[in-house]
Amino acid sequence: MAKPWIHAQSSARRFGGKPEDYIEIHEFLDTSKSAVPDNRHRIFTHNAWFIFFIPEKIFGRNITNSNGREVSVREICEQHVQEDFGGFIPSAQDWVQAMDMQPWMNAAGGPPPSIKKLRKGKPRTEQVMRFDND
């Protein structure tokens, strides 16, 4: 059983309604798994900043479940992240502090590893991926 479905079932138990009422939000929170297939994917969506700002812009402040109850999208997201982390929600700063600063993160530090990989054997890629005046 996929993890978003488990979260959706948990939301239905907590807020009422059916798992189908919540699945789209839980799948959204785990979409970053397609880019980073281990738990580091959570850096993008499993933090207080993201929960506070982004989901409500997509789903609205509340959804109405199949029981007719309005449920806060933020509370659904908070529940998801707390379940994944054993009861807490990390800040974006918590995630960033766990990363080492790399030269490519600064203006003149050169390209990141993904661009270097693209450039190997593909001279045209450099022209396509070049960003002047950035």
Question: How would you explain this protein's 3D organization?
Answer:
It is a single chain. With 134 residues, the protein is mostly helical. Helix 1 (3-15) packs across helix 2. The chain contains 8 helices and 2 strands. It starts with a helix and ends in a 5-residue tail after the last helix. The chain is elongated, with a radius of gyration of 19 Å. The chain has 2 domains: 3-97; 101-134, no CATH class.
Summarize the structure.
The protein is mostly helical and 134 residues long. It is 51% helix and 4% strand.
Key terms:
disordered C terminus; 134 residues; mainly alpha; 2 strands; elongated
Ordered list of secondary-structure elements with their pairings:
Elements: H1 3-15, H2 23-29, H3 42-45, H4 48-59, E1 62-64, E2 70-72, H5 73-85, H6 92-97, H7 113-119, H8 123-129
Antiparallel strand pairs: 1-2
Radius of gyration: 19 Å
Largest sheet: 2 strands, antiparallel
Mean pLDDT: 89
What order do the helices and strands follow?
Answer: HHHHEEHHHH
Q: Which strands sit side by side, in order, in the main sheet?
A: 1-2
Proportion of strand residues: under 5%
Poorly predicted parts: 124-134
